[in-house]
Amino acid sequence: MLAQSNHHLLWLREQDHPAVSLPRWQQQVELLGNFYQSRACLILQVVNNSFQVVCARQSQNLRLHGGKTFDDSGLLAVLNAYEGYGLTTSTAAEFRSELDQFSQILSRPIFWPDGELFGCILICDPVQAKYHERLAPLAETAKSLFQAELKHVFLMQQVKMLSVQDEQTCMLNPYGFNLMAPRQLSLSRRFGSHAGIILIEEVMSDSHEMQDVSEGQRIRMLARVIHDNLRDADVSARVGHRQFIILCFIDNESNLDALVSRLKKQIAKEDPTLKLVSGQSYFTPDTQISLEPMQEKAKENLNMNKLEFQKGSH
After folding, report:
1. Nearest in space to 109 (alpha carbons), one of 99, 121, 98, 97
2. Inter-axis angle of helices 174-190 and 291-312, to 10 degrees?
3. How many CB atoms lie within 10 A of CB 42?
4. CA-to-CA distance for 278 and 118, rounded, in angstroms?
5. pLDDT tens-digit readout, 238-273
6. Coil, helix or strand for 249?
7. Three-state DSSP class for 274?
8. How far apart are alpha carbons 173 and 2 in whole angstroms?
9. What is the helix, strand, coil percentage profile of the chain, to 5?
10. Strand order in the sheet with 243-250
């Protein structure tokens, strides 16, 4: 499980985020609606190609209240085609939703700081459309305010990610593992899943000094192979300089052995000179113990296997 930013996959209205003031967004919507004398003024957010009304000002009930969610491929096309500065003018024929009740819509995309599309400002059937060039700076000012608050959301999400993410591999770090793994373990027990802990550690060999493969590249390769061989429910992390941990959910103990074997075979294909040792522990769903004893048992197994490896290499 890699730590990933999900800022653009969550509806803003469903988060209580200290960086965003929806009343202030609503004030901007009211202001734009009044100046343009429009039938409706909307702020929409897009997530997975669906739209949700963040804020709305309507001259009457136009079925576009805050929180309403709908699809509109025509609006997506308009926003994706946007270039430059100012408002885009569209007609009813371009839309595939309740937006087709308006004969004219002025739109302006809103973006996250990383360039992802957040959504848009819509000014629907404006009476003052002929003055839209003079009024355009108002929409730009509102857009700048929204994007400034979205930047704070984005930065706070990045800080949160860094607190649980290993910088070199983008895997969870020890803190992230200790945060995520107990939740997954508790959830799996409810469904009667068996669980296993795997510790994998690279043992340095002199042959690596003769290669062009840097230590950082090997660590990233290990992280990638581990990630690619796990299911979504499994949790993995880098917990030491050359050590990784996996919490996996399996049907029986033989599945745990098979996963360890598969990982070692895949890693050997990527780098035949890389030496690994592993330790593991297996628990049935009726074993109601916390994560720490599971990790301790896997660590004991790892240390025993390291001693055997060291004896065999002399």
Report:
1. 121
2. 120
3. 29
4. 44
5. 999 999 999 999 988 899 999 999 999 999 999 998
6. strand
7. coil
8. 10
9. 45, 25, 30
10. 235-238, 243-250, 194-203, 275-283
Backbone angles phi, psi at 63, to 5 degrees: 60, 35
Q: Could you tell me the two tokens for 310?
A: 């060291």
Q: What is the DSSP letter of 23?
A: H
Give, in order, the Cα–Cα distances in Å from 196 to each of 34, 176, 223, 281. 61, 18, 18, 6
150-165 residue pLDDT tens: 999 998 888 777 788 8
pLDDT, tens digit, 9 for 90 and up, residues 185-234: 888 877 788 899 999 999 875 544 445 457 889 999 999 999 999 988 89
Which DSSP symbol is given to 2? B
Contact 193, 284 (CB under 8 A): no
> 60: part of which helix (H) or strand (E)?
none
Q: What own/partner pairs with CB < 8 Å and gap ≥ 24 does 250-255 have?
A: 250/193, 250/194, 250/195, 250/196, 251/194, 252/194, 253/194, 253/196, 253/282, 255/194, 255/196
The tokens describing 192, both together, are 């009667």
How many residues in total does the chain contain? Answer: 314
For 234, the token pair is 């499994």
